[in-house]
Design a protein that fits this description.
The chain contains 13 helices and nine strands. By secondary structure, the chain is of the alpha/beta class. The strands form two sheets. It has a seven-stranded mixed beta sheet with strand order 5-2-1-6-7-9-8, with helices on both faces. It has a two-stranded antiparallel sheet with strand order 3-4. The longest helix is centred in the first third of the chain and has 20 residues. The chain is globular, with a radius of gyration of 20 Å. The structure holds S-adenosylmethionine. S-adenosylmethionine binds next to β2.
Amino acid sequence: MYGRRPVADAKRASRAILSNFLAKGAPGLYVRLTGETGRGKKAETPQSVADYFRTCFSDYFEKLGVGADAVDEWLEGKVLLEYGPGDVPGVGLLMLAHGAEKVICVDRFSLNQRTSFQVSVLQEILDGLEGESRRRAASCFVQEGDPASGFKPARLEYRVTRSGLSGLSEEVDLVYSRAVLEHVNDLGATFDDMARALKPDGVAIHQVDLKSHGLHRENPLDFLTWPALLWRLMYEGKGVPNRWRLNRYRQALGDSGMVALSIEPTALAEQEDINAVRPFLATPFRELDDETLQCLGFWLVATKDTDKEVEVGSV
Ligand SMILES: C[S@@+](CC[C@H](N)C(=O)[O-])C[C@H]1O[C@@H](n2cnc3c(N)ncnc32)[C@H](O)[C@@H]1O
């Protein structure tokens, strides 16, 4: 817990504050030095990364309640916005292969550098497609079927913007992200951007991971004991978790004018870990009830169309 080992805390904080200066001053250099992909540090092959994107793609439609046979019809002609694609727009390519008209990827950090590995992942996805899906995917590249030539911007656009906001207005049918919202630096601004970008009947779907991302020590929740100001000084420029809990997501969603169609937990903390960490929690988390602290991840499906039936899940 923060404060119980002051010397270790001071060492860790000074190192993190120094590297945070680098991350804020030269984000491109920081991303290159850390070799960030958005998928962690595990060993990867083009096939394992392509498989990951295929899983992400099918998860979205399962959570949206669209059967595998109905996906192409559902996507036909739609404009999509993806927050935080990581270093390869693999899900975007699959969305285009299955009928989407255009995918706009927006990120706060420029991770997409078109390396040979990234090109191999796109090639692997392309090679795994058949028939009409393959033809559609192949036609998205500047040179037909050649991922090394880059995407046609009219089909897949990759934007890097301050705070990762799209700035779009009523242009998008579906907004999606995975493992991104817990990293955004201004959650309220991201939800407002999403609400503005969506068409009136558009839908948003996000998978959010509220775990520590390796930044805890003795207890999976002890990263919530660092004071908020110190956390910002240590990590603000690095895109590590913003630490917001489910209550803050509900607030940002409501403030944006959107409503939840479902919220489904993906991981829960143990009660004994909550009890052990509670006396040490930093101010923003001290008043939260056990149920809120328990939620370590969730799927959110939301819309601007407030006439749609609201079926908020069990969290
Ligand atoms: C953990 S990675 C997930 C990447 C990808 N979605 C995946 O599942 O592999 C987080 C992504 O969110 C991006 N990100 C961080 N802050 C952001 C922001 N404010 N707006 C949009 N994207 C952001 C990161 O640059 C990175 O691409």
